[in-house]
Amino acid sequence: FTKIFNPSPLIAGRYLQKYFESNKTSFEEEVRKILYQEIERETKSKLMDEIIRYCIAPGKSPNLNSIITYNFDDILEFNIQKSSLDLPYKSIYGNGMDVDTGELPIYHVPGYLPEKGKLSEANQITFGESVYHKQYTDTYSWNNIVQINKFRENNCLFIGTSLTDPNTRRLLDIANQQRT
Questions:
Q1: Rg of the chain's alpha carbons, rounded to an integer?
Q2: Interatomic CA distance for residues 33 and 54, integer angstroms
């Protein structure tokens, strides 16, 4: 499949989504199965440990406003839970999901596929070209608004991203224009 659609994973994603839709199978369920198939939950990660330590609020002054992740998985949430830290958080992956005071919002802007639990419409992931184009053109989608606001109003630290996604660069440009 990769040889045919190389080098565009968006085009491959589009065809995979169409395939699963035509077979009445949930694309997100299939991605979730593969996503967690080889994850070793007990593997220690120095990077993950440092990210979680950075999330800790000393006293009542938080180190960070929120986390925006471009991952579908719940690895960050799992590691927060398994730590012995009292770090309230909420995974945000759809419109209208609010956080309570004192919770650290973890925004899954391309969608969220937790390892366990029932998936719903809110768990749709930005993987194929059709969903990507919808998000790209809808400036007022919740995930675009969150990113623009965070990029404009906060210092942002990017970890593990190459910034090759044209939509992310477009949102950074919009946020930068709004700052001046």
A1: 17
A2: 30
